[in-house]
Structure formats: structure tokens, C-alpha cells
Amino acid sequence: MKVLLVGTGGVGESIAILAKDRPWLECMVLTDHNLARAQEVQHKLGEGPRFPVEFLDASVRGQIVALARKYDVDMIMNAVDPMFNEQIFDVAFELGLVYMDMAMDSDCGLNLGRYQFERSDRWKERGLLALVGMGVEPGISDVFAAYAAKHLFDSIEEIGVRDGANLEVQGYEFAPNFSIWTTIEECLDPPIVYERDRGWFTTENFSQPEMFDFPDGIGPLECVNVEHEEVLLIPRWVNCDRVTFKYGLGRSFIEVLKTLHMLGLDSTEKIALNGVRVAPREVVAACLPDPAHLGDRMTGKTCAGTWVKGTKDGQPREVYLYQVADNATTMRDYGVQAVVWQTAVGPVIAMELLAEGLWEGAGVLGPEAFDPDPFMARMDAYGAAYSIRDQPPVTETDTSEVF
Predict the structure, then answer these.
(1) Are the C-beta atoms of 32 and 15 separated by less than 8 Å?
(2) Would you say 58 and 6 are in contact if contact means Cβ atoms under 8 Å apart?
(3) Which pLDDT tens digit goes with each residue over 244-273?
(4) SS3 220
(5) What is the model's pTM?
(6) Sign of the Cα pseudo-torsion (83, 88, 94, 96, in order)
(7) Does residue 355 fall inside a structural domain?
(8) Distances from the Cα of 35 to the Cα of 31, 66, 360, angstroms
(9) How many domains does the chain have?
(10) CA 131 to CA 134: how far, in whole Å?
(11) Residue 87: which residues within 8 A CB-CB, separation 6 or more?
């Protein structure tokens, strides 16, 4: 397989590291708008010929086309902000290539992913595959949902993705361990909930808080509704009554995000400032540390998982399928911090399954559209062993306090 990797931030770097020693990878072209960053990743890999470096502005369609043709790639792996999804997605269709991303296009709320899903029939007619939402959340969490439906339940009442961590970044009071652009969009766009009788609908930001006890020493965290792709993906292929996504953000983190929104600092509209035009969100991003270079300051673990409630053999059942990444381990073994490493595992395993012909399909498909068994069978070999825990009932916390 020859891959055009669009973006070599923290996750892009981790994808390249995880794919480096895989026999199915012939070439992975490292691209970025910051050429020095792509060169840094290439140097870290120590394999120039298999990992050539190119400058790429993902907003310029012609540059994507030129590089895909230059290297005669089989796949375009989108590892940049979802604001660039449409042109990358369209180039893959134009050139007849496999497309993969880790987040849906940047429309918010009920429109999330609409551009791509509206074009699914065109992809299917040409026998082309666009695998969307194939990171960790969405991605591995969706595979967990498909596995639970296949093996653990006869009927499913609710699927709830629950994410929590006890990560700390030394020296910073506020330092997101993922792209601040993605963090702002996920947390300040209206959260989505799916119910079979109602369809998809939005709720208030940070609504329906609940205490969820995360494994491996992370412990109980208050989780709230946040916009996420799983809610739009899972019900398309998994038969269930309800789907939610809740994130253990912590109240101080929420207050910072609310303050950014209140001041208009989350805006992407450019404003005039001392003779230049700049988006407030660009200023916020420039003031924060680069998540790709936080690993040596981070401690703790992050947990991605899928809670499922339903029945098996006539009896009620609740389980939590999860994967925990320890920052000390990912830094020691891969040289990258835990959050970006965990996000990269899903797409690289998916690449392997596509290269080996174990995953096949046409159209715009989510991870739950495929057989989960070969994916989960490979997780341990990638250092991402999963666990399944019988789950006590989840209870909502006191909602009288206004966030």
C-alpha cells in the first residue's frame, strides 16, 4: 500500500510510527504546510526513501492531486483538521483512491458529516471506499459497538461512548492534549443524541452530567454530552434504541471553553488587528503549546471506551469495552504522547485490514460497517490491548447546578 498522509501533527506522526515496520506498507508520503515539521517526523523515523517529505497546503486542491499522482498512491489518509475534509475527500473520489479520515467534515450539530454521506451513492456506484471516522473516538469506539452487537447482546437499549483521563501537563494551567481547533468545535457545537423513535436531535452544551468510573486507576469522572461522530455513525449500522457521547472534561476545562466562547475567542472569522487579519481562534492556538510536543511533560492515562446496555439470553446486561493508553508507556515505546498515539492505532489497523482484503466495501462507510473481529484481534499486536468490564448501572449526577 502507498499512502499520502495529509498532515504530520501529533496524530500524523503517530500513524507513521505505527505503520513503519508493517510489511504491507510500501510508501507513506509525509506532507504538511510546515515542511520542517514533516522533516522532523521523517528524521525520527530514520527511513527517508519509504517516507518522502513534501510541502502541502491542504486547502489547495491542485496540490493534493499533484502529490497523489506523483507518488501513485492507493490511499489518501486525512490527518488534518476537518475543515479540510471536503477537498481531500473529493480528490480521492476524482482519482479513484481509498479515502480515510478520523473526523467528519466541520459542519456542526445535525449537519456533521452531511457533505460526505450525501455523496455515498456516487462512491458506491464507482466501487470506491471512503472510510470515515476511523480514529479512536470515533473509530475504535465504533468497532467496540459493532463487536458488542455481534457477540455480547441480543438487543441493545443504549450505546454510550465514554471518554475520560487523568492526564496532567506539568508547567501549564490549560494545555489541551489534542488540537484546540477540534476541541473547541467538539465542545462548543451543540451535542447530538440519537433515539430510535425521535431520530437525531441536539441538546444543551455540557448537558446530562453523570458520574462514570473509569478503569485502571483513572477513577470516577463527571461526564457530559459533547458533539461527536459516533452518535451519527453507530445507528446507521448497529441496531440500538439510543446513542450518546459523553466526555469527562472536568469543570475547570469547561469553564475555560465557556470563557473563550463568551469573549468570541472561539471564532474562525478573521478580524483586523494592527494591519493584519487574523481569526481569534488562531490567536488562541498560537498561545497554547503544540500537543505533539507535550509528551515529556505529561503524566497519567487516557481511556477510550464504549458502554453498552441491553439484554443477552433474556437477562439484562451492561458492559464497558475500553482501551487505556498510559503516557509513560507510549513515550517509552513510541516517543509520542498517549492521546495522539491512541488516536493513530485505529487508522493503521484499518489500513492493514484493507491492504490484506479483510475489510472491503464501497460508499461512505463508518468503522461499524465492517466485521469487528479481525480489527480487535490485531489490537494487542499494536500494543493497544482492550478489555471488557461488566458494568454497574450509570447514574446521572445532580443537574441543579448550572454549568
Answers:
(1) no
(2) yes
(3) 999 987 777 778 888 888 888 878 788 888
(4) strand
(5) 0.90
(6) negative
(7) no
(8) 7, 17, 34
(9) 2
(10) 7
(11) 58, 59, 61, 64
